[in-house]
Amino acid sequence: MMQESIDLSRYIRPGDTIWWNQGTAEPLRLTESLVRQRAEIGPCRAFLGVTSSTTLQAEHADFLSLLSYCGLGQNQRLMDAGMLDVIPCHYSQLPFMLDSGALPCDVLFLQVSPPGPDGKPSLGTAHDYLLCAARRARVVIAEINEQMPWTHGSPGVEDIRFDAIVHSNRPLLTASLPTIGDIERRIAAHVAEFINDGSVLEMGIGAVPDAIMGLLQDRRDLGIHSGMLGDSVVDLIEAGAVTNARKSIDRGVTTVGILLGTQRLYEFARSNFSLNFQPSTYTHAHSVLASINNFIAINSAIEVDLTGQINAEVLNGRYIGAIGGQTDFMRGAQAAKNGHSIIALPSSTRDGRISRIVSRLADGVVTTPRSESDIFVTEWGAAQLRGQPLQERMRRMIAIAHPDHREQLEREAFGC
């Protein structure tokens, strides 16, 4: 049923769980309608991914409770307001929890593009777990946004049944470009030493990934297989460094699940058949990742300990990160032929007072165990831990810690 306005109380029941596109692909007309009509609908729950809008506010907790897999974007503000709780899980687990019913999806809000070259709409800039959610939902409500780019990929979109359709014509949300400083450039220089012609890259968004991308324009035949990409990938493709010509799978195309960037990135994606959008059941699947020769997974952390344990979730008792796809990509990269997993992070806080390499993780949260560790990089160098015993791991990690903290780390590690 196609509508210009929509009475959501016709479709949403009290107690329902609602899902929608994450990040900058949020279907704003539908989520804004949910907020306005929440009293008429009754108490319900929403599952969020990364949140880029400010549509949800603390006062909406009167009828809305929220869940997420992460504390990223606007989610931290919602947690501080006491209306959002986090489900700690690997990103790759979300489709399976949907399929099993462990995570319910009663209603799905889905922002899609207008029909493209194939005469059908697409999931646009965010494919991730939406197909799985659509299969489980009792009701699927589509927002067809004239400004959502049609994108290539994700088989099965044409099978989604839309129970109601609304139209919009508004720019997508955007993510601000990060500021790259000296520390990020120094980290990037060390990471770049591990990236050769023909490497296939996974990395997130932010200052360090953008700095790394900026140093790779002299490489040839790089490939991309990543859960999320930002604007810096456009520079690398337009420079001719990324061709995907040597990929052992998906040869010739950049494989991605979500775009999180600016209008420039979205226009680059519009009807671009060199971008291969896939759901998380593909982008994060161990069997897929392990089959990518020369796969280099680059991720970050809040803090790491001297033996290679990683905390990417909690800082000073506050949930600010995510388990996300970190462990998925780390395991996949190390199972791949000539693959490597790199954790890149500054050695200390900006003022240098607190080391991000520690003898013991402060909040006791281990996002990824030390058994999965491979290479750690800070602005002071790289520490390769794969195959190394505990004592040697400690020595190598201390060597890439900030110089002001090395003596203290040595005392805590070796009692000297």
UniProtKB/TrEMBL annotation:
<keyword id="KW-0808">Transferase</keyword>
<dbReference type="InterPro" id="IPR026888">
    <property type="entry name" value="AcetylCoA_hyd_C"/>
</dbReference>
<dbReference type="GO" id="GO:0008775">
    <property type="term" value="F:acetate CoA-transferase activity"/>
</dbReference>
<dbReference type="GO" id="GO:0006083">
    <property type="term" value="P:acetate metabolic process"/>
</dbReference>
<comment type="similarity">
    <text>Belongs to the acetyl-CoA hydrolase/transferase family.</text>
</comment>
<feature type="domain" description="Acetyl-CoA hydrolase/transferase C-terminal">
    <location>
        <begin position="261"/>
        <end position="413"/>
    </location>
</feature>
<dbReference type="InterPro" id="IPR003702">
    <property type="entry name" value="ActCoA_hydro_N"/>
</dbReference>
<protein>
    <submittedName>
        <fullName>Acetyl-CoA hydrolase/transferase family protein</fullName>
    </submittedName>
</protein>
<dbReference type="Pfam" id="PF13336">
    <property type="entry name" value="AcetylCoA_hyd_C"/>
</dbReference>
<keyword id="KW-0378">Hydrolase</keyword>
<dbReference type="InterPro" id="IPR038460">
    <property type="entry name" value="AcetylCoA_hyd_C_sf"/>
</dbReference>
<dbReference type="Pfam" id="PF02550">
    <property type="entry name" value="AcetylCoA_hydro"/>
</dbReference>
<dbReference type="InterPro" id="IPR037171">
    <property type="entry name" value="NagB/RpiA_transferase-like"/>
</dbReference>
<feature type="domain" description="Acetyl-CoA hydrolase/transferase N-terminal">
    <location>
        <begin position="78"/>
        <end position="166"/>
    </location>
</feature>
<dbReference type="GO" id="GO:0016787">
    <property type="term" value="F:hydrolase activity"/>
</dbReference>
<dbReference type="InterPro" id="IPR046433">
    <property type="entry name" value="ActCoA_hydro"/>
</dbReference>
